[in-house]
Amino acid sequence: MIRFAYLGALLLALGGLAMIDHRWRLAFWDAPRRAAACVGIGVAGFLLWDVAGLLLGIFARGESPHMTGLLLAPELPVEEAVFLTLLCYNALLAWRGIDRALVARRARAGGAVHR
Asked: Can you list the pairs that 23-30 forms with residues at least 24 positions away whose Cβ atoms lie under 8 Å?
């Protein structure tokens, strides 16, 4: 059970982000295709970065009893892809939330809303 602790924590955090997204309709509950493209492109870019780092010997996989041991590629644990998804989703929600807050602030101040 301890082998899935990190993956479980990542999935729990993703679930929390999904609840925030659902509540304020920031990404997947607002524009699912755009959100999936944004997160997917971000994850793919970071995975390519990781693979390049692994091939160059810059990165290495550390051993931990909290990780599943499942690998996407040599030295690339499955938890890395889930973490990168969490990172990209979090960034997208932050961006959308800040944008929405600024638009609402401008509207309250009586300024023109430009989109």
From this structure: 24/97, 24/100, 26/92, 26/93, 26/96, 26/97, 26/100, 27/89, 27/92, 27/93, 27/96, 30/96
Written as tens digits, the pLDDT of the chain (115 aa) is 799 999 999 999 999 999 999 999 999 999 999 999 999 999 999 999 999 999 999 999 888 999 999 999 999 999 999 999 999 999 999 999 999 999 999 999 985 555 5
Name the phi and psi angles at 98, rounded to 5.
-65, -45
Selection from 38, 50, 29 nearest residue 85 by Cα: 38
Contact indicator for 86, 14 with CB cutoff of 8 Å: yes
Strand partners, 71: 77
CA distances from 55 to 44, 65, 73, 81, 90 (A): 16, 25, 11, 17, 28
